[in-house]
Amino acid sequence: MVPVPGQAPDRAGGFVTTQFVLAVALSLVLFVMLCNAIVYQYARGVVRAALDEGVRSGSRAGGTVGTCEAAAEEVRRSLLGGPVGVHVAIRCGLVAGTVQATATGYLPGWLPLVPDWPIDLAASAVKEPFTAPPTPTPPPPSPASPAPPASAAPVGSVPAGASLRATSTVGAGA
User: Fold this and answer.
1) How far apart are alpha carbons 98 and 128 in whole angstroms?
2) Are 67 and 14 spatial neighbours (Cβ–Cβ below 8 Å)?
3) Integer Cα distance of 94 and 121 in angstroms
């Protein structure tokens, strides 16, 4: 705006800047809240995968509640480390022939306006029975079958002076 001599300057131009700053700030707050919701969905998927891996390893033959908890914690720690996953507790148990894993806790909100996101998930798998496979024992040698002589020719070799003759049985019905 070009100043006119003898006229007071217009001071309303700075008001648009304040509106713009407030609109951008509100947009950024909404963007952070949206990102928080996306991270919550990711964290929920990680906890679900950790529970599944825990019950999978605990339900194997020879698996224990300890292997269930260790496998679940390893997945949670590797995919959801840092301050996001520290408030989630994973527990495993053996109930009526099934391995059950539960995750309880919360995921903290990033802003004071965003509430904490609760987590309460469970997974289970049937425990495999542990039966030791029988150890195979070779059958004893039969006394009726003699051992091959040590001077015998190897299998597939042709003695000197012998000839090979091939016969075919294809189309033998004619």
Assistant:
1) 9
2) no
3) 17
Return the domain boundaries, the chain: 16-126
- For 42, what's the count of Cα atoms within 13 Å in the CB-facing half-sphere? 11
| Distance set, CA 105 to CA 35, 86, 111 (Å) | 20, 9, 18
pLDDT per residue over 153-174, tens digit each? 555 555 555 554 544 444 445 4
Q: Residue 31, CB half-sphere, CA atoms under 13 Å: how many? A: 6
Identify the helix (H) or strand (E) that includes residue 55: helix 14-59
* CATH entry 3.10.450 includes domain 16-126: yes
Q: How many C-alpha atoms does 56 have within 13 Å on its Cβ side? A: 9
To which residue do tokens 């004619």 refer? Answer: 174
More confident: 174 or 7: 7
Instruction: Name the CA radius of gyration of the chain, rounded.
Output: 38
Contact 100, 121 (CB under 8 A): no
Phi first, then psi: give them for residue 138, nearest 5 degrees.
-70, 145
55: which residues sit within 8 A by CB, 6+ positions away?
68, 92, 99, 100, 101, 123, 124, 125
